From TrEMBL:
<feature type="compositionally biased region" description="Low complexity">
    <location>
        <begin position="178"/>
        <end position="191"/>
    </location>
</feature>
<dbReference type="InterPro" id="IPR029063">
    <property type="entry name" value="SAM-dependent_MTases_sf"/>
</dbReference>
<dbReference type="Pfam" id="PF13649">
    <property type="entry name" value="Methyltransf_25"/>
</dbReference>
<protein>
    <recommendedName>
        <fullName>Methyltransferase domain-containing protein</fullName>
    </recommendedName>
</protein>
<dbReference type="GO" id="GO:0008168">
    <property type="term" value="F:methyltransferase activity"/>
</dbReference>
<dbReference type="InterPro" id="IPR041698">
    <property type="entry name" value="Methyltransf_25"/>
</dbReference>
<feature type="region of interest" description="Disordered">
    <location>
        <begin position="172"/>
        <end position="195"/>
    </location>
</feature>
<feature type="domain" description="Methyltransferase">
    <location>
        <begin position="109"/>
        <end position="170"/>
    </location>
</feature>
<feature type="region of interest" description="Disordered">
    <location>
        <begin position="74"/>
        <end position="101"/>
    </location>
</feature>
Length: 298
């Protein structure tokens, strides 16, 4: 009896997902489908929590490396001051580089941020965060989550299509970047532009969960070029996508080869099979869908 119930619920989840997709036509595909998910309040992917693989990566890899770089920079700065009497460079007085970059807070951007649980988590970990989503309702929910968590100050949320991001001028130094951010935050500027912008080559982490496997179906080279343009040299691309080693049960799937080929222009750090975190909808399946956790560097 239990099995029948589980089968029935599983079928209705897949049917609901397919119905939502099938009622879209080609021209609406990139937008209408996503608005309908939020209109219906049917968000099968949404666990309400940051992805466990992101938490693992941030706490065990990214932040320890960032802190080590900060310590190394501080030590170099102290030696320089001791031996030459010169002031050591600071984030606001020198150009971007691996060492000086570590003296500021890391910057992350999530494309397709949904209701913002991962953005809020990143902000709580000390990142300056930008969340982008096509759907205004998603962005409103993300903003509310950030306010509730007390991290709105370090989060910017944009309603935008990933293929048409509002690009700011390239900022070549941290001080240029900070100046640009301050200008964007001025109320008259917000009124003039309607929203903030994203700065090319300024992010230390581009995070994607279940969005790349959607956007690659529209223009794979295009979206990968967007990710590359967002990242500073050496910055991390972290993606969680559907994995074709099991039949598709909701999220679109791709093979390891397809994922590696898409990011061939990046340095591959790791590509590991994993599972998406449990959500109320995935609870009707025997286990959450299989995923790839791909980590690359620009
Ligand atoms: C499967 S959901 C994943 C949401 C979030 N990353 C999470 O894991 O909870 C995909 C998200 O991408 C957004 N999206 C789809 N196409 C987009 C586009 N062209 N530009 C920006 N966001 C897009 C959708 O509105 C949706 O919120």
């Amino acid at each position: 009896m239990c099995q029948i119930k589980s089968c029935h619920t599983r079928r209705s989840f897949i049917e609901q997902t397919q119905q939502t997709a099938e009622t879209t036509n080609m021209s609406e595909e990139a937008t209408g489908k996503w608005h309908r998910y939020y209109d219906k309040g049917f968000l099968p992917w949404d666990s309400g929590k940051p992805a466990s693989q992101l938490v693992e990566f941030v706490e065990n890899t990214f932040l320890p490396a960032w802190e080590a770089a900060t310590a190394a920079t501080a030590a170099t700065a102290a030696t320089t001051t001791e031996t030459t009497g010169e002031q050591a460079p600071t984030a606001s007085s020198s150009s971007d580089g691996a060492a000086t970059a570590a003296r500021r807070r890391p910057r992350a951007i999530e494309i397709g941020c949904g209701t913002g649980a991962s953005c809020v988590y990143l902000a709580q970990q000390g990142f300056v965060v930008t969340g982008v989503d096509l759907v205004a309702d998603a962005v409103a929910a993300a903003k509310e989550r950030a306010e509730h968590a007390g991290v709105s100050d370090c989060c910017t949320f944009l309603v935008a299509d990933a293929f048409q991001l509002p690009w700011a001028a390239e900022a070549h130094t941290d001080s240029e970047y900070e100046q640009q951010q301050q200008q964007q935050q001025q109320p008259q500027q917000e009124e003039a532009t309607g929203d903030a912008a994203v700065t090319p080559h300024s992010y230390d982490l581009v995070y994607d969960c279940q969005t790349f496997h959607v956007l690659r179906q529209i223009d794979e080279r295009g979206i990968v070029a967007v990710y590359k343009r967002l990242l500073r040299p050496g910055g991390y691309m972290f993606t969680l996508t559907g994995n074709a080693d099991e039949p598709e049960v909701g999220p679109s799937v791709l093979t390891r080869e397809e994922l590696c080929r898409a990011f061939a222009d990046f340095e591959q750090v790791s590509v590991q099979p994993s599972r998406f975190d449990m959500t109320p909808t995935y609870a009707s399946l025997s286990q959450p869908p299989l995923a790839w956790c791909g980590i690359f560097r620009a």
